[in-house]
Write a structure and sequence with these properties.
Layout (H helix, E strand, L loop, with lengths): L1 E8 L2 E8 L3 H19 L7 H7 L6 E2 L2 H16 L9 H7 L11 H8 L7 E4 L4 E4 L12 H15 L4 E5 L3 E5 L10 E6 L8 E7 L3 E6 L4 E4 L2 E4 L14 E8 L2 H10 L5 H8 L6 E6 L4 E3 L1 H5 L2
Antiparallel strand pairs: 1-2, 2-6, 3-5, 4-5, 6-7, 7-10, 8-9, 10-13, 11-12, 13-14, 14-15
Helix pairs in contact: 1-6, 6-7
Cofactor: Mg(2+); Mn(2+)
EC number: 2.7.1.180
Catalytic activity: L-threonyl-[protein] + FAD = FMN-L-threonyl-[protein] + AMP + H(+)
Length: 307
């Protein structure tokens, strides 16, 4: 039996599709788990578990659940290894600019410089045995928005497999993860659409065919702020405090694990579209495509071979 469901969570509409003897019950439990993730992992809710960590910055450590601790630990490791191209401590800048929220604005340069001092991942201290997280500087804030949806997608797919699902798809808005054979194709591959930057949702530049993969797309064309003829997007440079400057408007990464797709779409946005694909080609097990502001599309090696 196949069941489908759409649910509004995490600032988007999540699409769920799964085949299982008790598919409706499985989706009901899936939604419960997603609601739980949102409640505990949200950086925008002071009463969330992550919110409590941020509220205690500069004061005391906070014990968190094992899964949240593990994701914070992974995000810190990635932050340090990518030289801040990905930064879990970006929270102060996200909250200062508020891009994507109704009160978004261009901050005073002095305020930006003040917040830059607080986006240091080295100041995120972790005690593994106690699952404690301590932010050394007052005003620091962890924001897992660049990695959390990928983690959630991977966890849901793992749960579905444990329950014996035959196939499934979860789409968390720009983050798609599939398992098993698609019922719509002879070879079992899933066709995942790639959004055309700057156009209404659902208008595609094309589709990629995948099996048991994740397809993550990050772009600067939806969450943005336009002020006095200038456009500011939501992907920040930790070193300047301003949105990144790049010719890229959209980057898609195809990987086995969705969390890896999230990491690489964020880390590679620091480069031009052409350079991002050049670097992606050096990573084993990753494919992708990038679109620049003139609409030119750059494909990774394997995708170029399938054009």
């Amino acid at each position: 039996m196949e069941a489908k469901k759409h649910v509004a969570l995490m600032g988007t509409v999540i699409e769920l599709q799964v085949a299982h003897p008790k598919a409706d019950s499985l989706l009901q439990e899936t939604v419960r788990r997603l609601e739980d993730y949102e409640h505990r992992f949200s950086a925008n809710k002071k009463d969330s578990m992550l919110g409590q960590v941020n509220q205690a910055a500069g004061k005391h450590p906070v014990q968190v659940d094992e899964d949240l601790f593990d994701l914070i630990a992974l995000a810190k490791e990635v932050s340090l290894s990518t030289h801040l191209a990905f930064n879990l401590a970006i929270g102060p800048l996200v909250q200062l600019w508020r891009i994507g929220f109704e009160d978004a604005h261009v901050p005073d340069p002095k305020d930006i410089q003040c917040q830059i001092q607080k986006v240091d991942p080295k100041a995120v201290l972790l005690r593994e045995e106690e699952h404690q997280v301590y932010l050394k500087k007052e005003g620091m804030a962890i924001d897992l928005g660049a990695i959390a949806k990928g983690y959630f997608a991977d966890q849901i797919i793992a749960f579905w497999k444990e329950q014996g699902a035959m196939y499934g798809l979860i789409n968390l808005g720009g983050n798609v993860r599939v398992m098993g054979d698609s019922p719509k194709s002879e070879d079992g591959s899933w066709q995942i659409g790639i959004q055309k930057p700057g156009q209404r949702r659902g208008e595609l530049i094309g589709k990629v065919r995948v099996k048991d993969k994740s397809v993550v797309t990050s772009g600067i064309y939806e969450r943005k702020l336009c002020v006095q003829g200038r456009t500011y997007h939501h992907i920040f440079d930790s070193k300047t405090g301003y949105p990144l400057t790049s010719d890229m408007t959209s980057l898609t990464v195809i990987s086995d694990r969705s969390v890896n797709g999230e990491i690489w779409t964020t880390a590679l946005f620091h480069y031009s579209a052409k350079e991002a694909i050049f670097r992606l080609d050096k990573q084993e097990g990753l494919e992708g495509l990038a679109i620049n502001q003139t609409g030119e599309i750059f494909f990774s090696k394997e995708l170029r071979g399938n054009e």
